[in-house]
Amino acid sequence: MPEVLQRGDVYNRRGRTVDFSVTDQLLHGDFPGGLKDLNTTRCDVKQAMVESYARFFLEYEAAPVLMVNAAEIDPVGNDSDYAGLLAEIARGRKGRHYFNPLKSLL
Prior knowledge:
mainly alpha
């Protein structure tokens, strides 16, 4: 765990979110299975989360991982983009793979 996430001052300490109608609890509370009420307005906390998330996917080996660069495609609004993504998923290869599709020309 990153050092910054081991410090108590990066937590909001609002307790578990049990009443979603309480705005403070909704915005700062601890969601079940969530981020332990981290203060994500802090840049150091966000940076630690980004680094942890990236490291998880770079080191994960329990199942196949397909990382998709979706910056140039729209699989929801473009059938061709969707078909290309689905075909890549269907390849079902083991290990870690990267998919960098090009923007549809149609």
